[in-house]
Amino acid sequence: METENQYQVYKSKFAEFLKQQGLKKTPERFAILDAIYATEGHFTPESLLEDILNKQNFRLSRATVYNNMDLMLEAGLIKKHLFTNGVRYEKYVDFESHNHLICTACGKVMECRDEGVKNAIEAMRIKKFAMKGYALYIYGLCSRCSAAQKRRQKKLMNKTK
Prior knowledge:
Layout: H1 4-21, H2 27-38, H3 45-55, H4 62-74, E1 78-83, E2 86-91, E3 98-103, E4 109-112, H5 115-123, E5 135-140, H6 143-160
Parallel strand pairs: 3-5
Antiparallel strand pairs: 1-2, 3-4
Helix pairs in contact: 2-3, 2-4, 3-4
C-alpha cells in the first residue's frame, strides 16, 4: 500500500468529498478505498471485489463497488482507461503522466515511462489549451505474442516449401 501518510491524504480527500455530496462515510466505501490503494497497477471492479471478499473478509455487492468507484472517479481518486480488452482503472497519484503499452493479441497492458516521449509531449504548444498531464496508448505486440507470431510464421514458411 502507499505510505500511510499518502493514504491518509486520499482518505481525507474522499471523506471531504462525501461530506460535500451529503453522503455517508460507510465502512464499505472505505474498504473499497483501502483495496484500491493496496492495488498496484490496473484493476477492474470485479478484481477489486474479489480482492475485498478474499483479503478483507468484507461482504459487498458488485453494485456497491461499481457505485462507489463512480464516486471515486468523480472525487478524482481513480482514473478510468478504455483499453482494447475493456475498461480498467488505476489509482490517481498526482496525475503522473505515463504511457500504456497494449498488446493487441493478448490484451496485456504495461506501463512505460519514457523521458523522450515525455519531453516531446511537454514541449507541445496547443492553442487555447493548458495541458495538465497525459496518458498515451501505444498498441502493438508484447514480447510473448511477438515470439509466438514469429513461430507461427516460420511454421507456415516451412509448410509452403
